[in-house]
Amino acid sequence: MKRHITILFLFCVVPLTFGCGTSKRGLIELETRPPGATVYLNQIEQGMTLVTFEYDLRIPAQLEIEKDGYQTGLESLDGTWIVEEYRKGNYTEGHFSILGKERKAWKIKTIRILQKEGEQKELPRREIINKEKESNETIETIEALRKYKELLDEGVITQEDFEKKKRELMDLD
User: How far apart are CA 7 and CA 157, in angstroms?
Assistant: First the structure.
């Protein structure tokens, strides 16, 4: 089920959100607190934070953040991750150097707070319920976006109507 949602995000929501002309390759600028953590993408070292590296959103990846004395941070990078960062306001579009050439692309600038080893971060019950609610809301948002995209494709609504509804559904206004 999770794989289906990821694929749906990757091929439906991400193109709808970022437009068809947006590059599938972009940059991730990662900062950590404290700084100086080593960042790996699919077990390949990308550098120490503050670090910027290229990422192709068509290829799911494992992000790993390591620093002595701190818990290792693991995150799955995919379309869902990009959309979450977009919703947090960490996404920009512009001209960036990708594959050695200046191209129109996207960039995610994000910060991760590292946790000391031995510390347990327990989610309060309210946060657990909120995460479940967010998951259900995300699925409902995807379904609504698909519906409005179909209406746009059929000529029932205008591009302007679609963009307005998309911004409303994704809480961007």
Answer: 26
CA atoms of 18 and 56, how far apart (whole Å): 14
Place of tokens 């390591």: 66
pTM of the model: 0.58
Is residue 17 included in any domain, yes or no?
Answer: no
- In this structure, of 41-50, 64-73, 83-92, the range with the lowest mean pLDDT score is 83-92
The answer to whether residues 114 and 150 belong to one domain is no
Range of the domain at 30: 25-118
Same domain, yes or no, for 98 and 153?
no
Q: Bigger pLDDT: 16 or 61? A: 61
Decide if 111 is inside a domain.
Answer: yes
